[in-house]
Amino acid sequence: MLVNTLLLALREIRRNVLRSALTILGIVIGVAAVIVMVTIGGGATAQVTEQIASMGSNLLMVRVGQHRGPGASSAAPAFDLADAQAIAREIPAITAVAPSASQRLVAVYGNQNWSTTVNGIDNEFFKVRNWTVDAGRQFLDSELRAGKAVCLLGETVRKELFGDQSPLDSLVRLGSFSCQVVGVLEAKGQSTFGSDQDDLVLVPLRTFQRRIAGNQDISLIQVSVAEGRSTDKAKSDIEFLMRERRRIIGSENDNFQVMDMKELTRMLTGTTQILTALLSAVAAVSLLVGGIGIMNIMLVSVTERTREIGIRLAIGALEREVLLQFLVEAVVLSSFGGLVGILLAVSGSVGLARLLNIPFIFNPGIVLIAFLFSAAVGVIFGYFPARKAARLDPIDALRHE
Amino acid sequence: MPAQVEQQQPPPLVELQGVTKIYGSGTAEMQALRGVDLRIAEGEFVAVMGPSGSGKSTCMNILGCLDTPTGGRYLFKGVDVGALSRNQRALLRRHHLGFIFQGFNLLNRTSALENVELPLIYRGVPTRERHRRAAAALAVVGLAGWERHTPGELSGGQQQRVAIARAIVTEPAVLLADEPTGNLDTARSLEIMELLTAFNREQGITVIMVTHEQEMAAFAGRAILFRDGLVAEDQDNGEGR
Description:
The structure holds two protein chains of two kinds.
Chain A: H1 2-15, H2 17-54, E1 59-64, H3 81-90, E2 94-109, E3 112-121, H4 124-128, E4 133-136, H5 141-146, E5 150-153, H6 155-162, E6 171-174, E7 177-185, E8 200-204, H7 205-213, E9 220-225, H8 231-245, E10 256-259, H9 261-300, H10 302-315, H11 319-356, H12 364-390, H13 394-398
Chain B: H1 2-8, E1 14-23, E2 30-40, E3 45-49, H2 56-63, E4 71-76, E5 79-80, H3 86-96, E6 97-100, H4 112-123, H5 127-140, H6 156-168, E7 174-178, H7 186-203, E8 206-210, H8 214-217, E9 222-227, E10 230-236
Helix pairs in contact in B: 4-5, 4-6, 5-6, 6-7
């Protein structure tokens, strides 16, 4: 009986090519839209997380002010070198402390100029950021101590100013002073938000303070926690220390922030997640529209189908045989549409992920949800009108107008 | 002895006892049948006639188990159809009845062969035998070579012949035809009537046919006239035409 039913259902699908195709199309669009949107959103979020993870899970960032959601920070007095030294001296279980300050400046070489970020750092910076020098060398201790006019270029800055030439030992002008290029940093590529991580120039911190900023301010202290030690413990220790040093008492709010990777992840993925939610909403609408399409096609064909059911009943089909046929038909169509939608979505997502340079992450949960929703719409609107018709007296079904 | 009497007179193939049918309710109530008594024996060719609204089609639908009577009893081979479930009535249609409709009622966009195969599929006939029997039935109605054509590609007369092939492919006991020639011209109608007569004479299939054309009724051995929901006349034509 099942074989016969399958035969009847397949004949029915073949007989109504257009209706079947439209039903499948509705399911394909719904399933594909949802999967693509969610996959791309998930990929973008995963990329952010991955990039943060590549910075090391043991990194703490001590920043001035409080981060209050995307883009909002409160002003507060800057740190100074003594703060960084105090952290290095008093907090156990840390391997490196890298104070830094930065400013946007135009770097000039010959007739080339390039607006970039100049960071004042010491050699600890390379440790905490896990960054190496490709050509040339790091700063010498003597250069750091004396605040010599030397600099390291990020790959982007090197390319913009020097093209194919070697920049080593050349003089680059940063704002109002010139410095000698001693090295080029290893290329890191784009960050999640399209900002170029290689678009920077490093100078010794003391040089930065004297020649560029003209003050002793430190805006960021990056801290590396020793492998296998609790970052939470280090974090609360630093917080305690900084409150003390900045004379924050009792219930007064901190005017600085120690961020571990969890918080950084939360901050950076905030935007991506909003975007993902938005895309998902759009996708949900496509799914709904696809569902309505399926519903319309199924309901419009009810008259024709009711007569057909009448014919089948008159010929001697049992009610349950007719229903099983319609159910099989709906399931076959929905499954086929769902599969096509999934294939389309997966290939589309892979292509899009490559284009947008984000990882492709297959999310079986959302595939299942999209598939089940479309299939349910197909089955419900294919099956229930048929059930109504199959319960009529055959003659009433035959006469249905 | 009553037992001997019954042996001499087996129960008729179909028997209606005081069958009534009421459509609608309240002021819109319409009494289509007002108590019909009718006995048709195996092998008969009966023409059911009467003006529109006389109840002849309603009676036909009840005989075909397509519709259920409001009152009275319908016995098929002595079995009370009123006591059967929907499924049992469907099985009765499947195994004993064949239908021919005025409007053909073929499945659109489906080949003649597949239309004729349909009742065999429900009977669970294996593929090979199904094809053979369906093709044979089409050949009997003169449509050999037209197996692949869909109803849209066939003339009215051809469509009705496909419908007849579909009705007789299961070798039913009773062939119920509701104005089978109603949509056809005289030449096609006569062809259809020849076919029905042949099935009745050669295969012993009982044919019950509704018609309003005297000319078609003349093929039948017995003519029943309906008027106002009752059997008004019941005459024997002998062997028919």
